[in-house]
Amino acid sequence: MRIVFCAASSFCVESKAMNESLKPRPNVVLALVAVIAAISSFALPFATLTRSFGGQGAMLVHPSMVIDFTGYLPKALPDFSSTTILIWLTLLALLSIAALAWFMPRFLWVGGVFTVFCIISSFVVYAMTLDAVHAPLLAAGTAYRRLPFVNFGPSIWAFFAFFTGLGAIASSLRAAGRFPNFFRSITGVVVPGISILLALVICGVLILLIQQPPGLDKVAKSWVSDWFARVDLIWFSYSMLFGSVLPKFRPTLDFAPVWQSLSLATPLIFTGLGLSFGFRTGLFNIGAPGQVIVGGIFCAAVSIYLPGPWFIISPLAVVAAAVGGGLWGALPGWLKGRFGASEVINTIMLNNIASGLLVFLIGANEYKFFGQTVTLPFKAEGGEAKSLEFGAGARLSSITDPFSYTRDGLSYMGLAVPFLLIGAILGFATAKGSVRTRGIASGVGAAVGLGLGLLLREIPVTGAMQTAALNLSFVIAILAAGFVGVFLWRTKWGFELRAVGLSPKAAEYGGVNIAKNTIMAMAISGALCGLAATHFTMGGALSEYKLKQAIPADSVGFGGITVALLGQNTPAGVVVSSILFGVLNTGGLRLDQALDDISREIVTVLQALIVLFIATRGFLSGDFLRSINNSNKPKKEKEAA
Q1: In a 3-state reduction of DSSP, which class is residue 244?
Q2: pLDDT computed for residue 18 by the predictor
Q3: ∠ CA(320), CA(481), CA(473), 5° rounding?
Q4: Strand partners, 47
Q5: pLDDT digits over 216-241, tens only?
Q6: CA geometry: angle at 110 spanning 104 and 114, to 5°?
Q7: Pseudo-torsion of CA 206, 612, 260, 475, nearest 10°?
Q8: Radius of gyration of the chain (CA)
């Protein structure tokens, strides 16, 4: 009887412990964020009514309070009562997230969906309210820039509430074990994401210290106006920096900011891929600037002196750029493999040699050697340091030209074919498994892309899009990213190179030729960097189809290091981080034009801070990183005592 009682007691204790372990733990962090988001609706603006070029804005603050720093809003304002009601519903939704996160974490998705729906509905109603005011004015012939509410859009609190709702949905799905591969794959962005967030916080403080909030003279001085002016200054600065990732929708659809951002990102993709390739193989290639220059020299030699049709000359010129950069990278690779010389020092020295070689070829028309005058045919006439013009067959067209057509005197770009190609590439890249599985995924992606392209049909091609110099080298850059992904992770050569990068001694013990792989890795790294020259020369990004001394080899070369670090040395990460930096560079120019005391160098500071925080990832504890990486792994059952 005593034995039965002990067994029953042990079973009850174990059952209670099991029930306690199965009981979901409260999501304290999400509950706290939701409460802060709800309270901050009274301290952060919901939306902007209008924005002048100098940064002055008029904002809507809950509940139904308008603060005008522009000084030209009409006295009779629209009725925002419907928007206010929806904001109150959003507050209730945020509080429901907090309650669910604490008591029923499994049902967080309900509060998340409710929050997202409310915040989207509130801004749709807000936009319809302002459009109702504009409609009769536009019908009467009023110019768009003279409308009372221009450049309106969501502000900081709307985004705060929206992403809180998305976080609740993601947390619920993760707790339920849905999409485990997706959540496991995004853990790699924890360090870059937190690094970017910290860099934005510090830059925000710097902006407040440097720039006086505009428009304070238009309102009565008080701590309330000063607070909202400073909050709006931060929001305006970051919306200008990151706003070029989206097209302009008013007064007409214009993709010029997007085109400019992608154009600036193109050479960074090449150099970022080249340097990340070297990092993966255990080599620190600092010679990207020199490899870009030599790639441009080889590309120019083919483009200027080799006659023929475009379908022969253009591919040969692209290959020549890769060969030039590859040879310039293979040289320090050979020195390291043969003599053990540091590739860091050799690549830095070769940068100076490449710069001198460029100046020699296009700096002057004539040189004197041993009393003899030598004329260099590579140099164009005149005092400017640039080469002869490339042949017509060696030019990469604008990315819109293959898909453009003219109707009613206006140029349009059809979206069906581009979206089909993008869908096919994304389907093939994201699928896992055999070639057959990837082919099916590519076909499904192509079908989805074609359907979306037929739905959206076309976009207008403006003059600003043409001057953005986004050319087919961007397509080459995306193909290069695909090549790196396949070569490093799908071939035996890539496996050997990564093995050398992880542990050279172990790889050598396994039969890998270290010297040969070192030369090959540096050659491929240099070839990828050399391809960046096609954007500046064949693509006409320097306003001419010529090789010029003004080629920004240093900025894109050393910028590739930043891109590779931020992208975690992965092809997809490099592409995304390059586009991010392209967006920042475009937005930095716009911010420099809009604010008096802020220069575009704030972008350089932001990029430097991002690299600093990534390099010193010690700001995240080891326990935190381990908990992130192991968050989706099942816990081992404890052994019985």
Answers
A1: helix
A2: 45
A3: 50
A4: 60, 154
A5: 888 888 888 899 999 999 999 998 88
A6: 135
A7: -170
A8: 29
C-alpha–C-alpha distance, residues 559 and 553, integer Å: 10
- For 438, counting Cβ atoms within 10 Å of its Cβ (0-12 exposed, 13-18 middle, 19+ buried), the class is middle
Give 393: exposed, middle or buried? Use CB within 10 Å, 0-12, 13-18, 19+: middle
Residue 135 CA, chain-centre distance (Å), reads: 36
Q: What is the pLDDT of residues 308-317, one digit of tens each?
A: 899 999 999 9
Q: Tokens standing for 464?
A: 């600003």
What is the DSSP code (8-state) at residue 398? B
- Say if residues 578 and 473 touch (Cβ distance below 8 Å): no
Average pLDDT over residues 438-445: 88
Counting Cα atoms < 13 Å in the Cβ hemisphere of 274 gives 38
Residue 356's alpha-carbon distances to 211, 549, 557, in angstroms, are 41, 10, 16
- Residue 291 pLDDT > 80, yes or no? yes
SS3 268: helix
Which pLDDT band holds residue 638 (cuts at 50, 70, 90)?
very low
Identify the burial level of 440 via C-beta atoms within 10 angstroms of its C-beta, where 0-12 means exposed, 13-18 middle and 19 or more buried: middle
Cross-strand bridge partners of residue 366: 375
Q: 616 in helix, strand or coil?
A: coil
Residues shown for the chain: 641
The residue with greater pLDDT, 519 or 212, is 519
Asked whether the beta carbons of 400 and 413 are under 8 A apart, the reply is: yes
Measure the CA–CA gap between 613 and 215, rounded to whole angstroms.
Answer: 34
Per-residue model confidence as pLDDT tens digits over 75-97? 888 999 999 999 999 999 999 99
- Judge contact between 166 and 273, C-beta under 8 A: no
What is the residue type of 355? S
Closest C-alpha among 100, 104, 102, 103 to residue 165: 100
Q: Is the pLDDT of residue 3 over 90?
A: no
Task: Say if CB 607 and CB 562 are below 8 A apart.
Answer: yes
Q: In what order do the strands lie in the sheet with 404-407?
A: 404-407, 410-414, 458-460
State the amino acid at position 166 in one-letter form: L
Q: How far apart are CA 456 and CA 371, in angstroms?
A: 67
CB proximity list for 423: less than 8 A, separation 6 or greater? 445, 446, 447, 448, 449, 450, 452
Range from 244-248, 258-262, 411-415 carrying the lowest mean pLDDT: 244-248
Q: Is the pLDDT of residue 17 over 70?
A: no
